[in-house]
Write a structure and sequence with these properties.
mainly alpha; Tetracycline Repressor, domain 2
Length: 261
């Protein structure tokens, strides 16, 4: 039996009420990362200096360099913390939800709930995703790949459970497209909260993939690696044509292939 949107929202409230013990170090680190996130959000990564970050966090410049070495490491920790947190919350939220439709709704709610509560972090993730290099980039890419794979798995489960035929690639990327840009338009004074938006977004998405499947217009399926590589290659080719920043985009292409490998 399918899970109702209301049951998913109730599950979400129970999940949010659970206390998660943190150490004094974890609390202080989170405070510093929160301040750094705000600085990067307001000034951009390129426009922010270690002195700006020191001033915002209340830590001496020498202390900031001692513990974090560079602003790139701070950006890395922001991205790692954000993606690790949302993946951990998602895994906890999916426990006890057996129905494939309910699990997809939980995925949507988890994503929107976290990023509406952390819009500065979402802006930084969206605008500064090309900055990290080498080991930093690879570690964050691995977490992003895990998150993407979870979504692919949820859609595959729905297809098997309901005997549906649709392109998982198109469905997954369309869902992320719906969710990821919410920070650009959401106005708390006008728009509903995460629970209501997740319910409506879930209705639109699920009715869409089911209607398309019923119409018999499914696309040819691709493997996960083919899906990820094709999408990233198309996006990077388009950006190269528009920006002309060949060297900058070439570096990003290499990172995207690391994600898909």
């Amino acid at each position: 039996m399918a899970s109702s949107p209301n049951s998913v929202r109730t599950s979400g409230r129970k999940h949010r009420s659970a206390a998660v013990p943190i150490t004094r170090y974890d609390k202080r680190l989170k405070e510093i990362l929160d301040h750094a996130t705000q600085v990067f959000c307001e000034k951009s990564y390129a426009g922010a200096s270690m002195r700006d970050l020191s001033r915002a966090s209340g830590m001496s410049l020498a202390g900031l360099y001692y513990y974090f070495e560079s602003k790139e490491r701070l950006l890395f920790l922001i991205q790692k913390h954000t993606f690790s947190t949302i993946v951990a919350k998602l895994k906890a939220r999916l426990e006890g939800i057996p129905d494939p439709e309910g699990r997809i709704r939980a995925f949507i709610l988890n994503h929107l709930e976290y990023f509406l509560a952390n819009q500065a972090a979402m802006k930084v993730l969206s605008h500064e995703d090309e900055v990290l290099q080498n080991g930093f980039a690879a570690e964050v890419a691995a977490i992003k790949r895990e998150y993407y794979r979870i979504c692919v798995g949820l859609l595959e489960d729905l297809k098997r459970n309901r005997n549906l035929r649709f392109s998982t690639r198109i469905a997954v990327l369309s869902l992320f497209g719906m969710m990821n840009w919410i920070y650009t338009w959401h106005n708390p004074g006008v728009d509903a909260d995460a629970d209501c938006i997740a319910c409506e977004m879930g209705d639109i998405f699920l009715r869409g993939v089911m209607a398309r499947a019923e119409a018999g217009t499914a696309e040819k399926e691709e493997s996960f690696d083919q899906t990820f590589r094709r999408f990233e290659s198309q996006q990077n080719f388009k950006k190269q044509k528009e920006s002309g920043h060949g060297e900058h985009d070439a570096a990003r292409n290499r990172r995207n292939h690391e994600i898909a490998d």
